[in-house]
Specification:
Largest sheet of chain A: 3 strands, mixed
Structural class of chain A: alpha+beta
Order of helices and strands of chain A: HHHEEEEHEH
CATH class of the largest domain in chain A: Mainly Alpha
Distance between the termini of chain A: 44 Å
CATH superfamily of the largest domain in chain A: Winged helix-like DNA-binding domain superfamily/Winged helix DNA-binding domain
Largest interface: A-B, 42 and 41 residues
Strand order of the largest sheet of chain A: 4-3-5
Number of strands of chain A: 5
Number of helices of chain A: 5
Oligomer: homodimer
DNA sequence: TACTAAAACAGTAATTATTACTGATTAAAA
DNA sequence: TTTTAATCAGTAATAATTACTGTTTTAGTA
């Protein structure tokens, strides 16, 4: 895997782990996933690299309604379903950036992208008949 | 102002402050605003009431790409401009919820709302010719 | 390949944001 | 009123993240 930035074993491992994952992991989840195979790995290294990798646009840091930051290895602009019951984050592959941008008419600001979280009750939580009267 | 929930002087003050504000303040900003006129007010009280008020849908907690949680006294569904340079949050009064919902075709999830942050360079930062090559 | 400088590392300390706890006060209900 | 429940201020604790330090690794160069 090309880094296009200074190389380190840890950086490569972390990037690979995020790219592989489909569940938008937190820093701590990435650390826990890699630690068994890399006992010397430190949590600070994970945080430092996540910050560097997202500054370099190799990964995306996601804003979610609650909980710690999450990271996404898919840097194509795309959006997310966020379950307000279990906090699970899923890709919204059915919406395109062009769908979003066409609803705008020349704002004064210079737009660089969109972050869209579609708040939902996921299929699983819906099956379990979660009471969400206090959420919405 | 009607609370529709247990009353306390502090709760009323905090709700009023958020409703009045247009800049989506953080807990600490609200605390600093109210403290001079209410020297006994405690930061924990601000946090506790913000949580209660948003659970009761009297205010909205905003997910922003970085920094502490922000709060919005406008509970009508609406969206936000987020300046990636100065982190300022502004209302996007030019987009309606119906504009967003019409781009979907029957997802499996039960949708309860949308959170849209329009990442931008705000007018002011744009004037100042901020270098954003590292953001996007 | 060896030498040097810069970058990154692990481990730990510090900081920031938020929540929980405790005994005193205030609001609501009987 | 009296009693009960909720809220408060103040403080302690926790969670998430960043900064610091001395050591190791990487990158550039001779």
């Amino acid at each position: 895997m090309q880094l296009d930035m200074n190389y380190s074993k840890q950086r490569e491992l972390i990037l690979y782990e995020i790219k592989k994952s489909k569940c938008h992991p937190t820093a701590f989840e990435i650390y826990n996933e890699l630690k068994p195979g890399n006992p010397a790995l430190s949590l600070g290294t994970v945080y430092r690299n996540l910050k560097l990798l997202s500054t370099e646009n190799k990964i995306i840091k996601l804003a979610t309604p609650s909980g710690p930051d999450r990271f996404d290895g898919n840097t194509d602009e795309h959006y997310h379903y966020y379950c307000i019951s279990c906090s699970k984050v899923c890709d919204a592959d059915d919406i395109k950036a062009s769908d979003i941008s066409k609803i705008f008419n020349n704002p004064k600001q210079k737009i660089v992208g969109y972050e869209l979280n579609i708040l939902c009750i996921c299929e699983e939580c819906n099956k379990n008949n979660i009471d969400v009267s206090n959420y919405k």
